TrEMBL record, chain A:
GO terms for molecular function: transmembrane transporter activity. Belongs to the binding-protein-dependent transport system permease family. LivHM subfamily. This is Inner-membrane translocator. InterPro entries: ABC_transp_permease, BCAA_transport_permease. Pfam families: BPD_transp_2. CDD domains: TM_PBP1_LivH_like (cd06582). It comes from Thauera aminoaromatica S2.
TrEMBL record, chain B:
Residues 30-360 form the Leucine-binding protein domain. InterPro entries: Leu-bd, Peripla_BP_I. It comes from Thauera aminoaromatica S2. SUPFAM superfamilies: Periplasmic binding protein-like I (SSF53822). This is Extracellular ligand-binding receptor. Residues 1-26 form the signal peptide. Pfam families: Peripla_BP_6.
Length: 296, 389
């Protein structure tokens, strides 16, 4: 490499980082959705993403559905599964201590991995190709097609989610429930329905993220670890902030990519967790999270 | 309640006391293979194959009358590919049986259990690990690897590369895991000695999904050959796909755990031309007479993966060292079994490996380069067998 700084390389890894960040943000959105409505820290988000990807895989390969239909059915199916999980595992925990509910989601994660290994075994697999293979060039910079389209899908979905929260009745109900459950109840909002809705929508978003993550990196019963990176994203962004998930997702995607590009792959996680520590020290409730004041 | 417990305890004690005599006699004429086998968990696809391989070989030997009047008995336990569970399985199996051979499921287990093997002095072990570190007879006197260790696998690949294109530029792409880092340091020197230029080493974090950054680096290094290590499947297809999209002309290669037929074929069209090192013949190989493969195909008409062959060969090597120890009239101790194993020279594996094998140190440093043919959905040989000296 010449002594001159390789600007194209910088551009390419920044774009790659944004692409990865889009996926972080999208999965972070699913996480925030659940936290905002139900105050449940859902550690099973990575596994919900995995279930979505595997459903899609099963429908596309075993049942030979065309890929677009497989994705659609998988997303709807995941939504159903999300509603079911909420009804069976989460709602009975209403009013229990947050740590107990948290542990239920840890258990859920484990069960979901077991389900996948039972049905599809633990062998790593590939989703059928469904995105155009021609690379996208932004100026002279090369952007892999999957990363580009994945980012587009993530951006659109996040935009829709922001709009829904703002304008749709259900979204407003969700925000109302988030800010004060008792008040929401007394205003006639069906709070259990809001809970169910939030898990359904989050599971659907996670399924879409799962299909994209699976298309990029392949699917396996360990792909749920992606959820761990997302946990960092939402903590940095603020657990209850959609905008926070968006900004932190992109930030962490880009920082990881820069660290990987200029320092080496072993520095990626180091960079991520450094950000986490710094943010926790400076703004313990995240960049955009609600600053809760507890008075004793 | 208490009385019933006592009663049943007593009954068990009497039963085992009376059953003890014939059982002990039978045990004298037994050779026991224990195993921490990953039948569940992330490594189950390999574990199930390994299990079937060991089981089949044991069945074959026993059907043919055993070894010098001894029958083989295989005692497996599921390890779920977790070290603590593997160790628990080891304790359970070795406390209930007089184990002569043991199959371990991971590098971590091989390292953890090593002092235990040294202390017991009664069994030798191999396993699913091809770790370079295990190829040290001083540190691991009672262990061996039923194939080439990872550095030797790289050595075979690099030798092939040097033959094909002297002075070629090579890239190493590996995961940031113990498995991934294993051969990198040592192979740098091997490449240099062969006159190759290691243009770039790229490390990917474990569980990395998007590898675009790494591919941007790879593209700038413009290697003629790119060797992946420390992965099973992901993110290899993504590397190949993106490299093809950007017109990067490099030959991609893999090591053992990527090279099973079904794993490579999962890459679909991207697999075309993918190469790698494999110490064994594939299940379907018909290119040379292979009586053992014929028997395997007769027993199991459907494709068996390479972990199956590895398990099968491991059991074969166990049996061979037992045979040699018994033939020499020696006691079945770890030292004698290992000495017998190390006396194996130009051994015919019945075609599991295409050339007669010799154990050097703790490994069998042999392999062949294969190339994926996606039309036939098979791995086809791209080189002769390469034996490292």
């Amino acid at each position: 490499m010449s002594l001159e700084f390789d600007w194209l390389f910088l551009a390419e890894i920044m774009l790659a980082g944004l692409g990865a960040g889009g996926l972080y943000a999208l999965t972070g959105l699913a996480f925030v959705m659940i936290y905002k409505a139900t105050r449940v820290v859902n550690l099973a988000i990575g596994e919900m993403l995995m279930i979505g990807a595997y459903l899609c895989f099963g429908l596309a390969t075993a049942m030979n559905l065309p890929m677009w239909l497989a994705i659609l059915v998988a997303v709807i199916g995941s939504g159903g599964a999300g509603a079911l999980l909420e009804r069976v595992a989460i709602r009975p925990m209403l009013g229990e201590s947050p740590i107990a509910v948290f542990m239920v989601t840890v258990g859920l994660a484990s069960i979901l991995v077991g389900v996948v290994e039972l049905i599809w075994t633990s062998e790593p697999r590939r989703l059928p190709e469904f995105m155009p293979a021609t690379p996208v060039m932004i100026g002279e910079a090369f952007v892999p097609s999957k990363v580009f389209y994945g980012f587009l899908v993530a951006a659109v979905l996040i935009g829709v989610a922001l709009a829904v929260f703002r304008f749709w009745r259900g979204g407003v109900a969700l925000r109302a429930t988030a800010s004060d459950q008792q008040a929401a109840y007394s205003m006639g909002i069906d709070v259990p329905k809001v809970f169910s809705l939030s898990w359904t929508v989050a599971a659907m978003i996670a399924a879409i993220a799962g299909v994209i993550v699976g298309a990029v990196g392949g699917i396996s019963s360990t792909m749920g670890v992606f959820g761990l990176s997302v946990l960092v994203v939402v903590i940095v962004g603020g657990l209850d902030s959609v905008l926070g998930a968006l900004v932190a997702g992109l930030l962490i995607g880009v920082v990881e990519s820069l660290a990987g590009g200029f320092l080496g792959g072993e520095y990626k996680l180091l960079a991520t967790f450094l950000i986490l520590i710094v943010v926790l020290l400076v703004r313990p409730y995240g960049l955009f999270g609600t600053h809760e004041i507890e008075r004793l | 309640m208490r009385r019933t417990v006592l009663k049943s305890l007593l009954a068990t004690a009497i039963l085992s006391a009376t059953a003890g005599l014939p059982a002990a006699r039978a045990a004298d004429k037994e050779i026991v293979i224990g195993g921490s086998i990953p039948m569940s968990g992330v490594f189950a696809f390999a574990g199930i194959g390994i299990h079937a391989g060991i089981q089949d070989y044991v069945k074959m030997v026993n059907a043919a009358g055993g070894i010098a009047g001894h029958t083989l008995r295989y005692v497996p336990e599921d390890s779920a590919y977790k070290v603590d569970q593997s160790v628990a399985a080891f304790k359970k199996i070795t406390s209930q049986n007089k184990v002569n051979f043991y199959y371990g499921d991971s590098t971590a287990f091989s390292k953890t259990i090593n002092p235990e093997l040294d202390r017991a002095g009664s069994m030798i072990m191999s396993g699913a690990s091809f770790a370079t570190e295990l190829n040290d007879p001083k540190k691991y006197p009672y262990q061996f690897v039923a194939g080439p260790d990872y550095t030797q696998q790289f050595g075979i690949l690099l030798r092939y590369i040097a033959q094909q294109k002297p002075g070629a530029k090579v890239a190493f792409v590996h995961s940031d895991t113990e498995f991934g880092r294993d051969p990198i340091e040592t192979s740098r020197g091997v490449a240099k000695a062969l006159g190759l230029d290691v243009a770039i080493e790229i490390m990917t974090p474990p569980g990395a999904v998007d590898v675009s950054t790494e591919i941007a680096k790879l593209r700038r290094a413009r290697p003629d050959f790119t060797i992946f290590h420390g992965y099973i499947l992901g993110p290899i297809p993504e590397f190949i796909g993106q490299a093809r999209q950007m017109g990067l002309d490099t030959q991609f290669m893999g090591t053992f755990w990527t090279m099973d037929n079904s794993t490579v074929m999962q890459m679909g069209e991207l697999a075309e031309g993918f190469m790698g090192v494999m110490p064994y013949n594939y299940y379907y190989d018909q290119s040379a007479p292979a009586p053992m493969l014929d028997k395997i195909r007769a027993m199991r008409p459907e494709y068996q993966n390479v972990p199956y062959i590895q398990g099968f060969l491991s059991a074969m090597l166990y049996a061979e060292s037992a045979r040699r120890t018994l033939a020499a009239g020696k006691e079945m101790s770890a030292a004698n079994l290992k000495a017998a194993l190390n006396s194996i020279e130009n051994f015919d594996t019945g075609g599991l490996i295409g050339v007669p094998v010799t154990l050097r140190g703790n490994t069998i440093p042999v392999g062949r380069i294969y190339r994926a043919d996606t039309k036939a959905r098979r791995m086809v040989p791209a080189s002769d067998w390469i034996v490292l000296e």
